[in-house]
Design goal:
By secondary structure, the chain is mainly α. Helix content is 36%, strand content 2%. It has 16 helices and two strands. α7 packs across α8, α12 (281-287) packs across α16 (346-357) and α15 crosses α16. The model is unreliable at 18-23 and 256-279 (pLDDT under 50).
C-alpha cells in the first residue's frame, strides 16, 4: 500500500503523532490540555525571591482607602482586631525592624502572635492578599490595590513610612525591613531542603529499638467498666460523621484496662417502678406521646415497643439503659431518624423503662 518512500514517511509521521496524542491523553475523550491563558490564570503565586510578582505599585494612602472599604470590617481599622480573625498588627518594635528577629516570639508572657510578628517574607503577604482577599470576594482586588493594601499593612506595623509606595521595584526594600525576616530558617531536612543551600539534615534522629524491646501497648478503652455501655452499643450506632462503627461496648473491656476505681456495685442503681405505677404504664406511654412514634408491635417512626423489650430486657442494666435513652434521646441504633430527649419526671421515666423490660403489656 505504501510503496512510495514519501507515503511511508507520511505514515510514520502520522503514527508518531497519534502515539504522542494517546500518551498525553490516557483516557480518550476525557478532559483536554489546558491552554496557555488558562495556565497563566492559575499560575499566580509569588515566591520569596519575588519570581511571579507582577508589575504594579500602590501607595500607603491608596492602600488605606482600600483597607477601610474592604478590610477593616474583619481586621479592624488598624489591623489590631481580634473579633473575627487573629490580629495582623502588633507585637513588633523598631528594634525588631533593625535585627530582623521579633523578640516577643520568645516571650511566653506576651498574649498573642500577630501576622507581622511571624511572617518572614513580604511576598507571603502580597500573595495571600492577592489570591484570597477579601474573604467574601477573593481575587477581586486589582494588582495595584494589592500593592497598596500590603503597603498600608506594613505601614501600620511601623515597617515603611507614610509616603512609601510599594511596587515590584521596591518590594526588596520592604523585605529588608520586615521584623521577622531572619526568623525563617532553612537549616532542616524538610522541603525545600538542599535547594536553598542548607545541609538537608533531619530535624530529629530516631534510634529504632532492635533488641529487648518493650511489648507494644494496645489501647482499647479508657472507660471504666460501669460506664462502658452507658450510651448504648457503639458498634450498632451510625455516627453523623459517617459509617464508622465504634467498639462493641456490650463486651467487657480488655483486662488490662477494665479495672476501674469505681465498680458497678458502687454505683447506685435506679429505683424500680412500683407495682402500683406499672398498672398505668401504658396510659403513661400514651399520655407522654410515646405511642405517636412507636406502635406496640410495629414500627411507626421508631421501632415497636415490644421490639425494644425483646432487644434489651435480658440486659443486666436494662432499666438504667432504657431510662437513659428515654431521658437523653438518641440516633443510629434503630435507624437514622433521631429520638428527641424526653423531659419527664424521673419517676415516670423509671416507670416507662420498667414497663418496657416487662414486655410493654397493654
Amino acid at each position: 500500500m505504501f510503496n512510495s518512500p514519501k507515503l511511508r514517511m507520511l505514515a510514520l509521521v502520522l503514527s508518531a503523532g497519534v502515539t504522542a496524542s494517546m500518551a498525553q491523553q490516557p483516557y480518550a475523550g476525557v478532559g483536554r490540555a489546558a491552554t496557555p491563558k488558562e495556565l497563566q490564570a492559575w499560575d499566580i503565586d509569588v515566591r520569596p525571591d519575588f519570581k511571579g510578582l507582577p508589575k504594579g505599585s500602590g501607595s500607603v494612602t491608596k492602600g488605606q482607602e482600600v483597607w477601610e472599604s474592604k478590610c477593616a470590617s474583619c481586621h479592624g481599622v488598624f489591623g489590631e482586631s481580634n473579633e473575627v480573625f487573629s490580629p495582623l498588627v502588633g507585637g513588633t518594635t523598631a528594634q525588631d525592624v533593625m535585627t530582623g528577629r521579633v523578640a516577643r516570639l520568645t516571650d511566653a508572657s506576651f498574649p498573642g502572635r500577630t501576622t507581622l510578628m511571624k511572617v518572614p517574607t513580604v511576598s507571603t503577604l502580597w500573595d495571600y492578599i492577592n489570591r484570597a482577599m477579601p474573604w467574601n470576594a477573593p481575587k477581586s482586588l486589582h494588582v495595584d490595590e494589592v500593592f497598596g493594601v500590603t503597603a498600608y499593612l506594613l505601614n501600620m506595623g511601623g515597617i515603611v513610612p507614610d509616603d512609601f509606595v510599594l511596587s515590584n521595584e521596591t518590594m526588596a526594600l520592604a523585605q529588608s525591613r520586615l521584623p521577622n525576616r531572619n526568623g525563617h530558617s532553612t537549616d532542616h531536612g524538610l522541603w525545600p531542603g538542599k535547594s536553598l543551600g542548607n545541609g538537608g539534615k533531619p530535624d530529629v534522629k530516631a534510634v529504632a529499638c532492635m533488641s529487648d524491646c518493650a511489648a507494644e501497648a494496645k489501647v482499647a478503652s479508657f472507660l471504666p467498666a460501669f460506664a462502658r455501655n452507658n450510651n448504648g452499643n457503639l458498634a450498632e450506632q451510625q455516627r453523623l460523621v459517617g459509617p464508622q462503627r465504634g467498639a462493641d461496648t456490650t463486651q467487657a473491656a480488655p483486662t488490662n484496662l477494665a479495672a476501674a476505681s469505681v465498680t458497678t456495685a458502687a454505683v447506685a442503681k435506679p429505683a424500680r417502678a412500683s407495682k402500683s405505677t406499672e398498672v398505668s404504664a401504658y396510659a403513661l406511654a400514651q399520655k407522654s406521646g410515646c405511642t405517636a412514634c412507636h406502635g406496640l408491635d410495629n414500627k411507626i417512626v421508631g421501632p415497636g415497643l415490644r421490639e425494644i423489650s425483646a432487644k434489651y430486657s435480658k440486659r443486666a442494666d436494662a432499666q438504667s439503659y432504657l431510662a437513659g435513652k428515654i431521658k437523653t434521646g438518641g440516633q443510629g441504633v434503630w435507624g437514622a431518624i433521631p429520638m428527641p430527649p424526653q423531659s419527664l419526671p424521673e419517676a415516670e421515666i423509671a416507670t416507662l423503662a420498667q414497663w418496657l423490660i416487662e414486655g410493654a403489656k397493654q
